[in-house]
Amino acid sequence: MSTLLYILASPRGQRSYSTQAADAFVESYRLAHPADQVKTLNVFTENLPTFDGFTLEAKYSIMHGQKHNPQEVAAWGAVEAVIAEFKSADKYLFAVPMWNFGIPYKLKHYLDVILQPGYTFSFNPKTGYSGLVTGKPVVGIYARGGAYPAGTPAEAYDYQRRYLELALGFIGFTDIKSFAVEPTLHEGPEGAKKYLEEMLPQLREAAKVF
Ligand SMILES: Cc1cc2nc3c(=O)[nH]c(=O)nc-3n(C[C@H](O)[C@H](O)[C@H](O)COP(=O)(O)O)c2cc1C
Fold first, then answer.
1. 3-208 fold
2. pTM to 2 decimals?
């Protein structure tokens, strides 16, 4: 039995196109993998530790090779719990809106919590950085108000898919698949519905073999 961690990054509920697309993916995934568990993590409702005070000091202690003091131990426990939940999954699904050409700040917050030396990546002065989350597949489903197709000048503005792929690659993911529902605004609600529906067969097929 595998666990799929479904990380939602839109606060728009069922009006969200990334959520609607990812829900369809999960529906097909459940049918194809009835024994698997799907855990949902909504970064807008999750109580993530703020990255300041003793939490921040604890990170710098790690980077300076120093032991945590008691306040840092207490603060760092909340970070370790989020990382442990993330690493306990076997497969990952991200549903991500584009906000100001990047990812929503709550998803950035989540990444700031889980990208930690010694937990999800390592650093060696001779060999450089290595990801520690290896051998696991991830699917990213993106929604954007405009369109940023590969090979067009607009692609240069896409710091949403590119950033998440970079961050995931940095911590060890190599099996990364991406799907974009776009444009969700520029051609009105009818256009958005059409692009979502066009995407669904591909998503459902990908879910079956995920
Ligand atoms: C704060 C905010 C910033 C946005 N910035 C962009 C943007 O830079 N480029 C874009 O194409 N659409 C932008 N949009 C539109 C969203 O990408 C679009 O509505 C998308 O469908 C959101 O994903 P969702 O439907 O899953 O919530 C923005 C929307 C919000 C709320």
1. Rossmann fold (3.40.50)
2. 0.97
